[in-house]
Amino acid sequence: xxxxxxxGCTIKVSAPxxxxxxxxxxxxxxxxxxxxxxxxxxxxxxxxATDNLIRHMAPVRVFARLQQQGEREVVTLCDMCxxxxxxxxxxxxxxxxxxxxxxxxxxDELNYDGSAEVLHLLQxxxxxxxxxxxxxxxxxxxxxxxxxxxxxxKLLRPTEVGLDDPEVPTVLGDLMAALGATVVEGNLxxxxxxxxxxxxxENLVAERVAATVAQARANGANAIVLSCPLCHFNLxxxxxxxxxxxxxxxYTQLMGLAFxxxxxTLGLPDATALFEEALPTAHHAQAVPMCTKxxx
Length: 296
Fold this sequence. Notes:
Helices cover 40% and strands 10% of the residues. By secondary structure, the chain is of the alpha/beta class. It has a 4-stranded parallel sheet, sandwiched between helices.
């Protein structure tokens, strides 16, 4: 299976380990993510103003380039890119007059008809590969890992573009279960981490991170797993005690470890130290158990 891949700016700059791990595990699963030949920033935040067409030009340009390259589907790893592109695609489909205006403004360069599909990698894993196929690839089940899946907001909201139930999502938990981990849950899994407020309201972000980490620990987690680079930054860098921080990992990295890939190929050169608490004996291949979910 081949599919066009849109990396976006954040993945390349702030989360290269997520991309490295994703490409590695996709190869194991027989999928080829080929990076778009030409791409630009997605625009980061979807504009809610109906007449602010300039804010739609960046994501529309991504789709126009995709269409020009003869592709109809594109996958992304970044939650914010996924959200921004998916919502811009809705504008393209529902408001063709705005697309005509963008096309005219760009001198016909941005000619896009709304026919493309943008997918998050989690959708590919869940809906096309399937959890059974992922489970079959496991060589080192993560039996000793008790993981707290953190979804944040951009994967799930608004519901018209979200990839799972906005209140009770399961995709990350199901994926971790397929890898042999035990899943623990809590009602803060879907709360915003504070996002870009870390720039000017660091106390707000620190409070949210503290509450989320405390809940994960109280429910027995020894690691947090997520998909969003901004959530990763906040949760990994704003814990109050860096010497005893709860590990924060991308789901792609845990997939790679469970598949038996070398940590260095997953952006984890110091995996032994990182997983000393979370994965004390994760290298004993056994049958993969079903997860046990904690109460919400």
